Amino acid sequence: MKSTARRQSYGVKGAPYAHPSPTTTLERARSAPYFFLLPATLLFALFFALPIGYALWLSFRKVKVSGLGLGSGARREVWAGLENYTDALSDSELLHGALRVLGYGCIVVPVMLGLALLFALMLDSEKVRLAPVTRLAIFLPYAIPGVVAALLWGFLYLPDVSPFSYVLDQLGMPQPDLLDGGPLYLALSNIAVWGGTGFNMIVIYTSLRAIPAEVYEAAKLDGATPTQIALRIKIPMVAPSLVLTCFFSIIATLQMFNEPTTLKPLTNSVSTTWSPLMKVYRDAFGEGDIHGAAAQAVIIAFATLLLSFGFLRAVNRRQKQEAAR
Amino acid sequence: MPYTKRRRLVRTAVAIALGATTLAACGSESADSETESGPASLTYWTWTPGMDKVVDLWNKGPGKKDQITVTVKKQASGDTLVTKILTAHKAGKAPDLVQAEYQALPTLVSNDALADISKHVGGAEDEFAGGVWQQTTLGTDAVYAVPQDIGPMMFYYREDLFKQYGLTVPTTWDEFAETARKLKKAAPGKDLTTFSANDSGLFAGLAQQAGAKWWTTSGDQWKVSIDDAATQKVAKFWGGLVKEGAIDNQPMYTPAWNKALNTGKQIAWVSAVWAPGTLTTAAPDTKGKWAMAPLPQWSVSENRTGSWGGSSTAVTTDSKHQAAAAKFATWLNTDSEALNALAKESGIYPAATNAQTSGAFLKPPAYFSHQADFYRKAADIAETTAPSAWGPNVNVAYTTFKDTFGAAAKSKSDFGAALDEMQADTVADMKKQGFEVAP
């Protein structure tokens, strides 16, 4: 009875622990795992299950006003069934927002991960100089909060105050309005790429450093050039971290909110419903429709789960196929 | 040891269970409140800067005598505060006093968040212009708030540049359009002003001046007429100017807009009485070069203005001391000492008629120091404010405005279509909530 011995060493003289009866000890031993699980279970229930459950509950309710809606008792909360969901799914603005975010993601994810991989490989190569400084410089934008980054770039994009526009003007070249139409997607992507490349680079770089040196040695003995080593050894071996960063980037894209919200006051091109989450925010806090917003949030969460796990499953299947070959 | 440990565990479990019941009780707690006298401690949600200093005057003076202490909790302004008040009210935990913009009052009243304080405000009604007071009663016998500040709209222009380009101050909107075209011809790189879609209050005020009444009631039904003839006239006017390129279409309150005002790229601004404060920060280099005039009119015989901004102090139904709270709200917005302090500490333009031409308002604002009769003129303009008509979902109309008019201004397309969309969205939202809406 190791546990009893330990308890005794802590126990006070004469306390009940000092003479435990065999049955209670056994009972205690059986309930011990549940006791240790309690904090985690409680935290999970309080801060995860409960809020999600509440959001689900809200999404099935709605406000019903009678008559003019003035005075007390004119407003009741009633069961709405799936009404909020059918409304959200038939709302073209939510779909358009999703398409806009998808278009943005098609630019951001490949460019950001491509750059991150390139930088990681370059930093890992043997000929690199000033590696720590460069690594820090590439990583630094990640430390800048998203809202600040969006403001900073927003001011650089605004033609009337941007130094770039000034230089272009002096050179007699046309000044593009980056906050309009197609260029807006590039402008938004640029903010994300600038801020996110460093983080993804560090993840990939760390897994590059974990590759054992013997592998390179063997490759060199076989006459592989540095480029061949990078393409045939390094990239396949960091594939898991590429999958991971891609997974994170997809989720971050679907949750896009900061950048367009910060740029919105600067231009007429970004509406209050530009991204799906912005629409949720507007409906809940701008228009006071908490129930509709809850339903949309549930749909977005579901779509995010579906897309990210769909991606993981697709990757796993391919890996299994490759392993079978 | 184990005994105490177990007892502590039990105690924690009980505490958690109690916490859960309190949480559950929040939702169903009734909003009954007794209005008792005696010591009262009140919380006040406001976004006005310097309000804590004004409240200090109360806590040290009349409040001390009546044993009513007010604590200021600084908030963010705008629509998010309305949502915050409603959320707090749902939990039965709204503060005693809240600052609310006039257009938010119907939303708050329809959620049963504001108390009827008609019994406690005494003769406060006489201190305000009829049109201002009417906004706090919603046309009923009840009183839901005490007016604090108002924002009568005016026309601001660069006096020096108007002279330089041979422009005269427009007195009608037709003249305004002509002035814009004339400036464009004389200096193609400059704009008279911009049509900005990022503050719905500006458009609402312009429509109000034209005689629009967006929400009205008849019997048990709401009538929504955002697309009435008056508003269409306003929308087509500005849409036409944007389309022909006579004015700019970029939003205001951006660094680019600040620069345009500061460098004289934009030489006029349709704004309200609070404009000196904005201009001081947006265009510091042009201090003393601006002048204020009444808003252009739709016909020569008219003399009306709209309002942009302005807010009131309201007492919530959750307050346990509604009489005390109403007493403070009345003092804050009608007492000359309080109004002086509000003008000095917070820079607000008072709704109380007498205060508009006394105390701090005897002298013009520093930015307009050369226009000695600035506030005399402002008070005269304030008197001509057209009545307003707010409804229970102004927030929906306002957000729709930002999107539809923002897109229309960007593409220089038909503002009339944008207005139709605004009307349709607002009616759809009301019907969805269950309001009776007249066809």
Question: Could you describe the 3D structure shown?
Answer:
The complex is a heterodimer of chains A (325) and B (439). With 325 residues, chain A is mostly helical. In chain A, 72% of the residues lie in helices and 3% in strands. Chain A folds into 2 domains: 2-59, no CATH class; 83-324, MetI-like (MetI-like fold, Orthogonal Bundle). A two-stranded antiparallel ribbon of chain A has the order 1-2. Chain B is an alpha+beta fold and 439 residues long. Chain B is built from 17 helices and 9 strands. In chain B, strands 1, 2, 3, 4, 7, 8 and 9 form a 7-stranded mixed beta sheet that branches. In chain B, a hairpin with a 2-residue loop joins strand 5 (215-218) and strand 6. The longest helix of chain B is centred in the first third of the chain and has 27 residues, at 2-28. The termini of chain B are far apart. The model of chain B is unreliable at 1-36 (pLDDT under 50).
Number of helices of chain B: 17
Task: Give average pLDDT of chain B, whole number.
Answer: 89
Task: Measure the end-to-end span of chain B.
Answer: 74 Å
E-strand count of chain B: 9
Secondary structure category of chain A? mainly alpha
> What value does the average pLDDT of chain A take?
87
Order of helices and strands of chain A: HHEEHHHHHHHHHHHH
As for the number of domains of chain B, it is 2
Shape assignment of chain B: globular
Provide the gyration radius of chain B in Å: 24 Å
Q: For this structure, what is the CATH homologous superfamily of the largest domain in chain B?
A: Periplasmic binding protein-like II
Just give the CATH class of the largest domain in chain A.
Mainly Alpha
CATH architecture of the largest domain in chain B: 3-Layer(aba) Sandwich
Radius of gyration of chain A from the CA trace? 28 Å
Arrangement of strands in the largest sheet of chain A: 1-2
Q: What share of the residues of chain B lie within helices?
A: 40-55%
User: Of all protein chain pairs, which has the greatest interface, and how many residues does each chain bring to it?
Assistant: A-B, 42 and 52 residues
Count of distinct structural domains of chain A: 2
Percent of residues in helices of chain A comes to over 70%
Content of β-strand of chain B: 5-15%
